[in-house]
Amino acid sequence: MTRSVRAILALLVAGLAGGCAHKASLLQSHRGEASPKDTGMQFSFRVYDAVTIRSNPTTQVGITIDGWPGNTFMLWFPEVVGDLWQQWNPPVAHQDFTTTDRGGLRWTYEGNPAASIQSELTPQANSLLLVTRVMNRGHDELKHVYAQNCIHFSQAPGFICDDYSRFYIRSAGQWRSLASLKPTSGFPRYYREGYPSRGRIDPTEHQFGDIRQETPVDHPLMVLISQDGKRAVGVASERYEFLFHNQMEYLRCIHSESGCMPILPAGQTAEFREKIYFVEGGLKECVAAFERDVQWDQAGEFSFRG
Prior knowledge:
Blueprint: E1 6-13, E2 16-17, E3 20-21, E4 25-31, E5 42-50, E6 58-65, E7 73-81, E8 85-86, H1 90-93, E9 98-99, E10 105-112, E11 115-123, E12 127-136, E13 142-145, E14 148-152, E15 167-171, E16 174-177, H2 178-181, E17 189-191, E18 222-225, E19 231-237, E20 242-246, E21 253-257, E22 261-264, E23 269-280, H3 283-292, E24 294-296, E25 302-304
Parallel strand pairs: 1-5
Antiparallel strand pairs: 1-4, 2-3, 5-6, 6-7, 7-8, 7-14, 9-10, 10-11, 11-12, 12-23, 13-22, 15-16, 15-18, 17-20, 18-19, 19-23, 20-21, 24-25
C-alpha cells in the first residue's frame, strides 16, 4: 500500500433517527498489509448516517486508531462546499464513499450542474490527507468557492476539553493555549496576520455574531492535547486564513481554514488540501510532525510533501 500505511476500512451505512439505530449494512471491508519498515499508525474508518446537530441525517466518518482505545474521532468530510453542496440540505446530504487503492475513502458528487466535487481521504504514516477538488463545469465564473471539513471530539473522551486549556495556536511566534487568550465566544475565530489582504475570505465571518478574536495567528496548525498530555491531534490547511474552535457539546471541533478563493473560472479546478495529524507526544511533537511534512515558499505559504 502507498507509503506502507496500514489501514483497516470498515464502511458501514446506518440510518440513525431520533437516537434509534436502524439495521446497519456492511458495504466493504479491507485490510492493507504493512511493510517491515512501516512505523505508521493503523487507522479504521466506519462510515454511517446519523442525526446529530442537523435536523436531517448526515454522513459521518468515525476514525479509530490502534493503541488509542476508547476514542473515536468524528469527521464530516466535507461539511460544506461553498454554495454547491451542504450537508444540511437533506436531498443531497447522504454521501456514498468508496474505498481507494491507497487505503482511503473517496466521495464524488455530480448533482450540481455548476460544478463537480470529489473528496478523497488518504491515510499516511501518522496523518490523514484530505483533498477536495471542485471543477467549474458551467459557462460562468463561480464565486465564494471553498471546502470545509470538521474533525470533532465528542466521541473521544480522552481529548474532551471544555475550558480551552489544551487547545493551542501560534501568535507572534509563540504557542498559546486558547485559555490564555481568554476567548470572548464559545465559537472563537482567529485570523491570520494580514487577513483579508490575500483575497481569501471567511465566508461566514459575519453570520455568528461577535466571534472574531483580537489575537492574530501566524501558523496554520491548531492542536488539541489529550487529557493525559501523551497524545495530540492537529489540523492544518494549505493557504490557511483562519483557525477556529466550536465548543458546542456535540462538536468540540478544531479547524484550519483557507476560506474562499476569489473566483473559479469556467473549466478550471480548485483544490483544497488539509491534514489531520495524530501524534504520540504533546504540542512540541505535533508541531515537529507538521514541519517535517511541509515545504515553505518565499511568500510564507506552504504545501504538503507528497
